[in-house]
Automatic annotation (TrEMBL):
Coiled coil start-end: none
Family of the protein in this entry: Belongs to the thiolase-like superfamily. Beta-ketoacyl-ACP synthases family.
Pathway: Lipid metabolism; mycolic acid biosynthesis
Protein name: 3-oxoacyl-[acyl-carrier-protein] synthase, KASII
PROSITE patterns per the UniProt record, alphabetical: KS3_2
Enzyme's top EC category: transferase
InterPro entries, sorted: Beta-ketoacyl_synthase, Ketoacyl_synth_C, Ketoacyl_synth_N, PKS_Beta-ketoAc_synthase_dom, Thiolase-like
Amino acid sequence: MTTPATYGDPIAVTGMAWDTALGREVEDVWQLLLTGADGFREVPSASPVRNPLAARLADAVPDGPLRHQYVTVTAAVARRALADAGVAGDPELHPVLGTSLGPHADSTATGSLYTWAEDAGRALGTAHRPIAVSTACSAGSDALSIAGTLLRTGLADRCVAGGVDLLSPAKRLGHSGMGVMSAGVLRPFDADRDGTLPGEGAAFLVLERLSTARGRGARVHGILAGWGASNSGTSLNEPDASGAAGARAVLHSLAAGRCAPGEVACVSMHGTGTVTNDAAEAELLRQVFGRAPAPVVVATKGALGHTLGASGAIDTIVALLALRDQVAPPVTQLRTAMADFPLPLPIGGPAPVTGEFALNVTLGVGGFNTCLLLRRGDSRQP
């Protein structure tokens, strides 16, 4: 069933759930982020890696092949998002599922890149086959923008969208071999940053048109007000150092949501802790905000690790919670901000957020830049 295109009907987020290195309950993890906690611990590796630290899920992943783990974690988190939205068991749901490479980074014998998503759709019991998204670190955000497009054009009435990425030997070796793995701790936007550290996680959100949500009395966590994307076209692994490509994605999302830069209250940045990525993001922010009132920056990878294709969806939930409570968590492990960083960074404690809009920016390997514009939803429920 589809409905006519409804471009004037905002896209509401009515359900959200995650599984992270700090836990799986949304409110519990949020409170831990506000304290500056992190989920890193030493994880044994059969091959030498630069750093044994990784942010594994707080609750153990299921036993079995990696593909089975992806399906199980995806279905479990998506079901909790649907329960949060009050629509568990909706057969007309459209799943949009993102990952970097899923189980394929470690094996060429896992079939099509689509197989894990198809299996997850079966586990959810949906009538519609899932859309699978594999745009590296932007996959979770891209899944949400695709869901927004399906809803806005009337091709779907409700979607569950987000991303998942699990720790694996190939991913750890990849980070180590490319020279982007920190020798110490992950310090986003720190003057002494020296690299990233892997994490694993999953996050899924339920999206539907606002009129539908209000019609059934659903709580609205927030509004997906706009989205934009670009590709740097400069390097497979390195970001566009000028920041121009990322800035185009941000400006497009602002234009789509009819939001001026000065109206943005906080910006959730990719913040991988590598020298080149964080420098490119600083340039991006400088180009977008210039002399506009400065929004506070949110960056979660010092707490949760680099969760690759899940990071955009995880950070969308964080941005919605920051808008709801009007507070930004401290940037975990950040001690001294890099020179000339253009926006405020919360160091050592939370920072106030004042306003109705947030941005969530991801810069993925392969030049995939995605930005989501979010608007504040309902207040915290008693």
